[in-house]
Amino acid sequence: MLAPIMPWHAFAQLTADDAMTIAAFLQSIGPVHNQVPGPFKPGDSVSTFMFRIMPPGETAAEAPK
Questions:
Q1: Distance CA 6, CA 25 (A)
Q2: In whole angstroms, what is the distance from residue 63 CA to residue 42 CA?
């Protein structure tokens, strides 16, 4: 099962203290120095997995290739 794109329900009950504690933790860890792929131009081969978000009611079969 894939996780939802924005799992708001998992964070909806956070208290202000919870949010500040999470923010303090994230600020305390060092940055990651990875090379980030992209951006990609139309027609470029993509070497990483990418999501495609469809408008409501549209299917992957109807989407432009």
A1: 21
A2: 15
Q: What is the largest CA-CA distance in the chain?
A: 47
What gap in Å lies between CA 30 and CA 46, rounded to an integer? Answer: 29
- Give the C-alpha separation, 19 to 11, whole Å: 9
Interval 33-43 mean pLDDT:
73
Mean pLDDT of the chain: 76
Could you identify the residue written with the tokens 């708001």?
A: 8
Closest C-alpha among 19, 23, 2, 21 to residue 11: 19
- Collapsing DSSP to helix, strand or coil, 25 comes out as helix
